[in-house]
Amino acid sequence: MQGFILGKKSEQSQSFDEAGFRIPTTFIVTSPCFIVDIKEPARQGYFSVMLGFGQAKSKNISKPNQGKLSKAGIKTPLRFLREFRLESDKFQKEGIVINNHKIEPGEELKPAFFFKQGDYVNVSGTAKGKGFQGVVKRHRFSGGPRTHGQSDRERAPGSIGQTTTPGRVYKGKRMAGRMGGNRVTVKKLKIMEIKDDGIVVKGLVPGAKGGLLEIKKLK
């Protein structure tokens, strides 16, 4: 079965592989992460698992989410709830069985349930917001000439359209605007180490330190 877990970005560091090359690494904290609910194809029309992650203050959790946690028997107030879709033909009435271990709502997930050293995962998160940026930073434009009287055109975008025909700017034209803050997925990151409270992956992951991450194992 496909592996999945929630975590947050922690420490960025570096390590050395078997060949002696220095590689960047990121430690992703995955504790506490609980199974909150299991959506069944017969009732909801699809098969998915809802996970809860990150400890929060009880007063900041909405009443519907508090009800979900209470139904699962989870006493820890969890900040984030996310669903992971699974293939309907792999649904089993007795629950989800992984490596001969049955997991049910209310149980805390550990990385060792799904992952092992050497596996590859996709990591999704929200990229850092950069605010309103020009075309040089946002789209890597080269800018205008630095000489021949172009004193104020060094970071300008240049022409953005034609004249009478078509008489407008095409949709999707690369221009200045808000940069970052999008959902980003970094694919095929290798797991370097498995710990009780998280995993260490090779490479960098999106978002700021402490940001929510969704980790999915490659099939």
Automatic annotation (TrEMBL):
<feature type="region of interest" description="Disordered">
    <location>
        <begin position="139"/>
        <end position="167"/>
    </location>
</feature>
<protein>
    <recommendedName>
        <fullName>Large ribosomal subunit protein uL3</fullName>
    </recommendedName>
</protein>
<dbReference type="GO" id="GO:0006412">
    <property type="term" value="P:translation"/>
</dbReference>
<dbReference type="InterPro" id="IPR000597">
    <property type="entry name" value="Ribosomal_uL3"/>
</dbReference>
<comment type="subunit">
    <text>Part of the 50S ribosomal subunit. Forms a cluster with proteins L14 and L19.</text>
</comment>
<keyword id="KW-0694">RNA-binding</keyword>
<dbReference type="GO" id="GO:0022625">
    <property type="term" value="C:cytosolic large ribosomal subunit"/>
</dbReference>
<dbReference type="InterPro" id="IPR019927">
    <property type="entry name" value="Ribosomal_uL3_bac/org-type"/>
</dbReference>
<dbReference type="GO" id="GO:0003735">
    <property type="term" value="F:structural constituent of ribosome"/>
</dbReference>
<dbReference type="Pfam" id="PF00297">
    <property type="entry name" value="Ribosomal_L3"/>
</dbReference>
<keyword id="KW-0687">Ribonucleoprotein</keyword>
<keyword id="KW-0689">Ribosomal protein</keyword>
<comment type="function">
    <text>One of the primary rRNA binding proteins, it binds directly near the 3'-end of the 23S rRNA, where it nucleates assembly of the 50S subunit.</text>
</comment>
<keyword id="KW-0699">rRNA-binding</keyword>
<dbReference type="InterPro" id="IPR009000">
    <property type="entry name" value="Transl_B-barrel_sf"/>
</dbReference>
<comment type="similarity">
    <text>Belongs to the universal ribosomal protein uL3 family.</text>
</comment>
<dbReference type="GO" id="GO:0019843">
    <property type="term" value="F:rRNA binding"/>
</dbReference>
